[in-house]
Design goal:
The structure is a homodimer of 395-residue chains. By secondary structure, the first copy, chain A, is mainly α. Chain A is built from 13 helices and 14 strands. Chains A and B meet through strand 5 of A and strand 5 of B.
């Protein structure tokens, strides 16, 4: 039993209540576009729509979220209906003839930004894979499968003709894709052959835990050379602590399935090391971007405190504790939990703020925009609630 | 004579001293790459090189700056030598076979980022046009002329094949290019036919002062529809106060040549209106980005205080006062001058900080990076010094 003074049952209830009584009702009330289909995500503090563009990442993520609630929490018809409402729109307008997913659409569904961004494909795969579990509709399975194959085909040059970097001069590969493929292979396991799942998962684990992981610092780098070496450049020096920590719970999920305790321990160690490195000792919270050599980062928003970074950290810490009983996970959980709950939830209009400045003040009062939608907060509340219940049963 | 309590002669001396005794020596001491040619611009607080990439915008701008000092201040051999040092490198490595200028190069000069950005071409044109005035070398004239023609050819689709926006859904045109062409046409007037200068200048003045200018708000929009109308989208609602104010001194320069006092008055009115709109009443300083409808902007760095925004504003206010004797220009000049001088210069290691947070604290301690080089600060010091001298002679 832990010596960290936390009432785990009460905490489980806190996360669950926030999900069902605050966050989900906000999106249910404000995000549905009944006229043209799909979801509005640009919602101001009160929930008013301040922009009607539809970003494919966020459309896919909201389909996934409501499908996942339906599959994993309760078979509520209104959740499935919400997921299908988004999927009808996205199937019709989201991709080009080759099955590449656009980055964004206007309210009516006309494409605004070309499919330069492979994460649109990733979130579409997640969405339709999860939706298929709810509907059994083979069309949904087919979209997920075809898109996943497309991702694997494109993965060595994800931006295609929109890639502006000249690889001959400085070849680099990015962390985001292997990271998300860890999660994606589990998400659509039911649609793939056992061999493809295993080979993809094994390759991703190696990439994340050996190639992008830097043993000397104990940190994960955002970009490395094709040989997995350090590149002394802006991209090569870049750290994204939230990214690294989020990927660690993907790895823990995979390691749990594979019953690989050593891998779990390594993922927990990286989580804790990244958190110590990324924590702002002066104002609290986790930095958005850092430079591994301490040079000034290129990203002007480097010192901001973002919602997803903090809620993903809560998941990794709780899963880490559940799987290892490492007390440090709970000590850090309490610290990040206190920061998160005292800064992000909006006590007046509900839901959570997304963007705080370094000092922890609200930088943008929006509840959703181009990047924040109905995804990280509810997914984290669900994951933390369920994990806290498991921990409290174990104690 | 003004009633605003300012000692204009002393101020002129302050700007001149800062240029010659602080800013120029910093760049002369730290930016020259004697091994591979060109300039380092990624300099930390002390002037140490923290990254060796060479950004074509900043290479071109530094060539321009030293050429301009040579042409307009004093024929110092070391200034011309510094300009030629950059130009030798840039002529050799800066462009592809079609004369399109890369965005960035590595230290040795190998291209890193494709020529997707037409402002690389603009700053190359400025550089070689000004350098030609110093050298009389026809090769320099030819580079400037050919690049300028290339810009005019590409101006309707500046990003070429790297453009990710689907124009059929939401056609928009941007303010940056007509804005910079105002300045560029004057810069290389000596290389162009009188007709081309006049037609370019007239077209740009109309674009800036009528098409992008929004009469209802008195503000300049960053993007409008091809018909010059408002687009209710993130891009369409975007304001960049520094951009708008900087362009007003380009317009004043053109209007002075054309002896168009009404145009000068309009440029001064827009300067003052933009400044009132963009000024942060709470912490002082001018915001980086705003939304014309007050919606949350997409740019996470929207509330930061950037060096170039403030020093360009000082130029516009002084030129505005010189040309109109509007007292409001001097009242605002005093306010922006006080903010600028108490926040941006580094009293310990010299030169100026570039990036402050909303509160006015240093966000990044660099003296130069991907976007800040040897350009805005020394150009503004030169412009303010010269303009203050003219004003004080007039009084």
């Amino acid at each position: 039993m832990t010596t960290v003074p936390l009432d785990l049952k009460l905490l489980a209830k806190q996360y669950k209540d926030e999900l069902f009584n605050n966050v989900l009702p906000f999106w249910e009330a404000h995000s549905r576009d009944d006229l043209y289909g799909g979801y509005f995500t640009c919602l101001d503090r009160q929930g008013n729509v301040f922009d009607t563009d539809k970003f494919v990442w966020l459309q896919g993520r909201q389909i996934w979220l409501f499908s996942s609630l339906y599959n994993n929490v309760e078979k509520r018809a209104e959740w499935l209906d919400m997921a299908l409402h988004g999927a009808d729109f996205l199937s019709k307008y989201g991709h080009d003839k080759e099955g590449n997913w656009y980055f964004s659409l206007n309210r009516e569904g006309k494409p605004l930004i070309q499919p330069y961004n492979i994460f649109s494909d990733c979130f579409a795969t997640m969405a339709y894979g999860q939706l298929y579990k709810a509907t059994g509709n083979e069309e949904h399975a087919l979209i997920a499968k075809n898109t996943f194959e497309n991702i694997l085909r494109k993965k060595d040059n994800p931006k295609g003709k929109f890639n502006k970097a000249i690889a001959e001069t400085r070849p680099l590969k990015g962390f985001s894709l292997p990271m998300i493929l860890c999660n994606l292979s589990l998400e659509i396991e039911h649609l793939l052959s056992k061999e493809l799942v295993e080979s993809t998962v094994d390759a991703c684990i190696t990439e994340v835990m050996e190639v992008f992981y830097d043993e000397a610092s104990g940190l994960i780098r955002e970009n490395v050379t094709p040989e997995g070496c350090f590149s002394n450049s802006f991209d090569g020096r870049l750290l994204n602590p939230g990214h690294a920590i989020e990927s660690m719970w993907f790895i823990m999920d995979l390691a749990e399935l594979k019953q690989n305790q050593a891998l779990i321990e390594k993922a927990v160690a990286i989580t804790l090391q990244t958190l110590k490195h990324g924590w702002d000792e002066q104002y609290g919270g986790i930095f958005y971007f850092m430079d591994i050599k301490g040079a000034p980062p290129q990203q002007l928003e480097w010192d901001q405190k973002l919602w997803w970074v903090h809620v993903e950290t809560l998941i990794s810490l709780l899963k880490g504790y559940l799987l290892t009983q490492n007390e440090e996970c709970l000590i850090w959980f309490k610290k990040v939990h206190d920061y998160t709950w005292s800064h992000f939830p909006d006590p007046v209009y509900g839901e959570w703020f997304g963007y705080l400045n370094r000092q922890g003040e609200v930088l943008l009062p929006l509840k959703g925009g181009k990047w924040k939608g109905c995804f990280h907060v509810p997914r984290a509340l669900l994951q933390c609630w369920k994990t806290l219940e498991k921990i409290s049963e174990m104690e």
